[in-house]
Amino acid sequence: MRVVIAEDAVLLRAGVQRLLADEGIETVAAVPDGDSLLASVLEHRPDLAIVDVRMPPTFTDEGLRAALEARRQIPELPVLVLSQYVEERYAVELLSGGAGGVGYLLKERVADVAEFVDGVRRVARGGTCIDQDVIAQLMARGRKDPLDSLTEREREVLGLMAQGLTNTAISRSLVISDGAVEKHIGNIFAKLTLEPSSEEHRRVRAVLTYLDHG
């Protein structure tokens, strides 16, 4: 696996690079700012970009904006955000972009090496890895409960999805057809404004919404 690291703190940048090297993961570029990140991913086409949120020159959201631009230019680029903060505006745009290969971890998680490396590999494979604290902060923005728009039956289906049941198992549990289950799930995705993407990714996001609001 080949990665690009964008982190302005020299010691943390070197530490993450060394940690990854110990796991057999090659760092093809380690850069201090968003412009260098974009240039590096375009040059190296890595398997993953690990990006800090706040970098020079303003130390606000340069990293996330650079990551979003990188995803626009290389749509399949997996991105793992590693930050002390949750920047809501761009984080929501990144996480709800409708594609896999995305993660958002708080830097304190790096202390758990196994968990961090697992997240790195999962995102590089096209999966998701989102810190529970990040989810909590993003979902607690004072919005109307997104589950309010669901019918009673759709809530039942989503609840069974949260238990890990397949569509076939849900149809047996509710004594309805597979087609009816698929229709309910489609309605759930639409009402929760989950953009079309892989079924697994949207299903996980729907379940996360249910667990946070159900």
UniProtKB/TrEMBL annotation:
Any one GO molecular-function label of the UniProt entry: DNA binding
Residue ranges of domain Response regulatory in the record: 2-122
SMART domains per the UniProt record, alphabetical: HTH_LUXR, REC
Protein's UniProt name: LuxR family two component transcriptional regulator
Ranges of residues in domain HTH luxR-type: 143-214
InterPro entries documented for this protein: CheY-like_superfamily, NreC/VraR/RcsB-like_REC, Sig_transdc_resp-reg_C-effctor, Sig_transdc_resp-reg_receiver, Tscrpt_reg_LuxR_C, WalR-like
UniProt source species: Tamaricihabitans halophyticus
BP GO terms, sorted: phosphorelay signal transduction system; regulation of DNA-templated transcription
Keywords associated with the record: DNA-binding, Phosphoprotein, Transcription, Transcription regulation
Source taxon at top rank: Bacteria
Keyword Transcription appears in the UniProt entry: yes
PROSITE patterns: HTH_LUXR_2 (PS50043), RESPONSE_REGULATORY (PS50110)
Modification sites for 4-aspartylphosphate: D52
